[in-house]
Amino acid sequence: MKKTNVAIIALALLIPIFVPGATSPARAQAEKAAYPTMAPVDQYLMPDPNAEIALARSGAPASISDGAEVMVLGRAGFTTSAKGTNGFLCIVERSWGAATDAPEFWNPKIRSPICFNPAAARTFAPIFLMKTKLVLAGKSRAQILAETSAALDSKDLPALEPGSMCYMMSKQQYLNDRGMSWHPHLMVFVSGDAGKSWGADVPGSPIIAANDPEERVTIMMVPVWKWSDGTPGPSLLH
Length: 238
Hints:
Elements: H1 5-12, H2 25-34, H3 49-57, H4 62-65, E1 69-74, E2 77-82, E3 89-93, E4 112-116, H5 118-123, H6 125-136, H7 141-154, E5 165-168, E6 185-191, E7 208-212, E8 217-223
Parallel strand pairs: 1-3
Antiparallel strand pairs: 1-2, 3-4, 4-5, 5-6, 6-8, 7-8
């Protein structure tokens, strides 16, 4: 995979990876100005809970997502709308899944179906669920970062379990204004800055690493060839 694709992948996952020449200062300033504050809450909600359940399940193949718990966003946060049997958790992430300094942190168009495996459902998803409650409580970006950092320090948020990963294979995903649906992909969550130990970001490696200091993990991204419905994804050769 070409190294220039790192910038696209970083955009797709709302994680700030800095690649020389990838983003001009003028473009970065324009992106930052596009979503300076939170939009009205209604813009982040999906009016039909059944549609949100279906979208959440599209994050992984049906053989996985049909047995997963599904949570739906409401005005007080995410609540369980479908019980699971296999330990997986499927939700539709909103824009605040990004780092707090991301240009599209408040983008109300973002819908990112994601299915966490049991380890990630127990120990990584709680960060996003906490951020959601803070967002809906009207907290600022700085307050969200401070409170989640404090919860990680105090162990109120659990330590990441080894083997934590997720599927992001929905053809209907809208990851950001430039990446949009990008590619179906898997993500593996590893504690600390672990890109080198995984052989990520080197010629010929299919793994691209995004270090996320706010959540204290490195996200290892692996594009795959098919969407969750089995249809071919975009070519990975360009």
